[in-house]
Design a protein that fits this description.
The complex is a heterotrimer of chains A (212), B (206) and C (326).
Chain A lengths: L6 H11 L10 H6 L4 H25 L8 H23 L1 H7 L10 H9 L6 H31 L1 E2 L2 E2 L12 H4 L1 H30 L1
Antiparallel strand pairs in A: 1-2
Helix pairs in contact in A: 1-7, 3-4, 3-6, 3-7, 4-5, 4-6, 6-7, 7-9
Chain B lengths: L1 H4 L3 H43 L10 H11 E2 L9 E5 L2 E12 L4 E9 L5 E8 L13 H5 L14 E3 L9 E3 L5 H25 L1
Parallel strand pairs in B: 6-7
Antiparallel strand pairs in B: 1-2, 2-3, 3-4, 4-5
Chain C lengths: L1 H4 L5 E2 L2 H21 L2 H21 L6 E2 L1 H11 L7 H16 L12 H12 L1 H5 L30 H7 L7 H6 L11 H13 L5 H20 L8 H6 L3 H8 L10 H21 L5 H34 L1
Parallel strand pairs in C: 1-2
Helix pairs in contact in C: 2-3, 2-4, 2-10, 3-4, 3-5, 4-5, 4-6, 5-6, 6-15, 10-13, 11-14, 14-15
The chains are: A mainly alpha (212), B alpha+beta (206), C mainly alpha (326).
Keywords (chain A): Membrane, Translocase, Transmembrane, Transmembrane helix, Transport, Ubiquinone
Protein name (chain A): NADH:ubiquinone oxidoreductase
Membrane topology (chain A): Multi-pass membrane protein
Chain lengths: 212, 206, 326
Amino acid sequence: MLGKKKTKDVVLDALWGDNPVFRQVLGICSALAVTNLVINTVVMSVAVIFTTALSSFTVSLLRKYTPRVVRMMIETLIIAFYVILFDQALKAYWPDMSRSLGPYVGLIITNCIIMGRAEAFANANPPAISFVDGFFSGAGYAIVLLAVSVVRELLGMGSILGIPMPYFSTGLWDRWIIMVMPPGAFFTLAIIVWILRSVKLAHEAKIQGAKK
Amino acid sequence: MAIKEKAWYPIVFMFIATLFFSAILIAFGSFTRQRVQDNERIAFERAVLEALPIDLPLKASPPAIHTMYLEYIKDSTDASAGALRYMKNDSLIAYALPLEGPGFWAQIRGVIGIAADKKTITGISFYEQNETPGLGGEIVKQDFRNQFIGKLLADKDIPLEIRMQSVLLDESSVHAVTGATQTSTRLGRFMNDQLMQWLHAMKETN
Amino acid sequence: MNKQNKPTKLLMKQPLMRRVIIATVPCIIASIYFFGWRSLVMVIVSCAAAFITEYLFVRKHNEPVSEAVFVSAIIYALIMPPTVGWHVLIIGIIFAIVFAKMVFGGFGRNVFNPAMSGRAFVYICFPVALTATWAPAAQGLFGALGMWTTVISPDAITAATPMALVKAGQTVPPALLDLLIGRIPGTMGVTSGIAILISGIYLFITKTANRWIIITLIGVYALLNGLFSVFNVAGVPGALPALLGGGFLFGAFFMATDPISAPKTRPAQIIFAVIIAICTLIIRTFSVFNGGLMFSILLANMFAPILDFYFKQRKKKEQPQNKETT
C-alpha cells in the first residue's frame, strides 16, 4: 500500500482486479456452505459486507492508537464484535433465516477476506477510504457468491429466490440433486472462477496488445 | 507517541478495547434475549399445534399461536409419559410427543402427534433441522408430513417404518424423501426408538 | 497420404486401448440382446459426446484426441441403466471427460477413472433416474433383438436390481444361472456374467488388463464374502452370487485395471486391489448405497499415486544397498 489510492481504483480493485474470491481465493469455505439457496447467499453477503466495511472502518479509526504487538488481537476483536452483533440481530428478528444459515454467520469471524482487508488496507489508510475498500471487497465476494447460488438453486431446485422458474420447475427439467449438496458448490465455483479468470486474462492480453 | 512504547500500554489498550466492545455486545444481547427465547418458544409451540388435529391458519401470528397453545395444550403428566396433552372440553384428544435425534448434518427436533387411542398418528412437524435444502430439508414439506396423518402404529419393533420409494406401503409405513436416504434413515431410527420407548412407558403406567 | 500434410492426426493411436474396445464388444452385444437397440445408440451417443468434449480441449494445443476416450465412453455407457434419459447420459460423460480427465491435463494424467467419476456424478445428481427404475431383460430365444427398448409400457419397469433386493433383505437372490447368463434387470452391459467373462479372458490373455489386480481383487472379494456369509452377516449373499452380481466382474476386469488410474508397481497393485475388495464389501453390506464397487474404485484411485511413490522410493533405497553388499 504505497502512496494513496484513488477511491475509484479501490472500488475497481475490490470488485474486479483483485476480487477476493476469484483472484485471491479467500472466503471459499462460506462460499461453499451458504450458496445452495439465493436467499441464504443474499443474507450472508449482507452480513459480510456489513462486517468488512465496519470492521475496516473501526480498525482504521484505531490504527494510530493500536500498539503493533496486539494489532491482530484488536482486529479479531473488532471483527468478532460486528459478526456477533449481526448474528444476534438475525436470531432476534429473523429466526427462520438464522436457523437456515446455522453456524455460518458466526463463522464469518474466520472469513479471511475481512482479516485480509484489515491487515492489508485498513491498517495503513484513513477511515473513510477503508470503509469504501471494506464495503466493496465484501461486494466483490457477494457478486461471485450470488452467481454460484443462482446456478445452484436454478439447476438444483428449479427456482430463484424460491420463485419457480419457467422450464426449470416443470417436469421437463430433471433437477440436479448434486447442486443442492456441497459438492455442487465446488464444481460451480470452480467453473465460475475458471470463466472469470479466462475473461480477465483475455482482457489483460488485450490491454497489453494495445500498449505495444 | 511516547506513551505507546510503554510496556503496560498494549495490555491496558487491549483491556479497554475488550471492555468497550463486550459491553456493547452484552447490552445488545440482553436487549434481544427475551425476543430470541420467545422465537424459540413459538417455533416449538407451532410445531406442537401442527402435529395435532388442530386447524392452524398458515400465517398465524406468534401471539395467536401462543394463545392457542395455552388454550389447548397441557403439560405432560406421569400418565402421558413425557408427551404433551391436547385437551378439549376436559377430554383428552391426542398426545404430542417431542422427538429429537441426529440428522444428516445436525440435530433434528420435531413433534409427532398421536391420537388418544395411542395408535393413530395425527401428524408430524419439525421445528429445528439443518438438512440439505431440497433433499433432507424436504421433511418439513407438506408432501412428506401429510403421509403420516392417519397411519397406525404397528405392534412391532418398528412401529412406523420409513420405506424406500420403491417399496410398497401399508397402514404403518411412509415413503422416504427421494434422494435423501441418510436423513430418512436417521429420522426413522430415532423416531421409532422414541416411539417404542413411549409406547412401553405408556403400557407400564396405565 | 493426406494425413501427413496435417500438423497432427485427429486420433492418437493406442493399441492397448483398441484391445479394450474390442473386449467390450461381447458386453455391448449382450446389452442389445437383453435390453434392445437403444443400448447400442446409447453407446454411440456417449462416444460422440466424449469425443467432442475432448476434441474441444485438445484442439487449442493441436494435439490428437486419445483413443482412451472411447474406452471411457463405452464403459460409462455400459454401466448406465438401459432406461436412463439421454440428458443424464450426456451430462455424465461430459462431466467425466472435463472434470476427471481434462482438468488434470488430459490422457495419462488423470487420478480418477473417468467412467467411474461420470457415473458417480450422475448417481448422486440424478438418484431417481439411476436407481429407481429398471428395465426388465427380454425373454425368449431372440431376446430384444427386434426391439428398440424392453420398456414397452410404464408397468414394465421393475423396481429394483438383484443387488438392491438382496440389500433390502426382501427376496432371495436370483438363481445363479440367471446371474451368469444375465437375463436380469440391471445396468446395460454388466448383467451378463458370461459376456463379461469372455471379455475378461480376452483382456487377461492379451495382457491388456493387469493380471495381478484382477486375481487379487476377485480372490480377496470372494474370500471375504465367503467368510461373511459363513458367519451369517445380513446382506451378504455368499461368494458366488456376490461375484456375479452387481457388475462386480465388469468392474474387476475393466475399471479396476484402468492402466492410468491404477498403480504401476506390483506390490502397490496388490494393495490397491485389496483396498477395493474390502471397501466394496463394506459399502455394499453396511451403507445405504448399492454402488459399492464404484465408490471403492474411486477411493482406491486416490491411494494409487502414494502407493506407487512409496514402493518406488523403497526400491531406490534397496538397490544401492544391494550393490554395496554384492
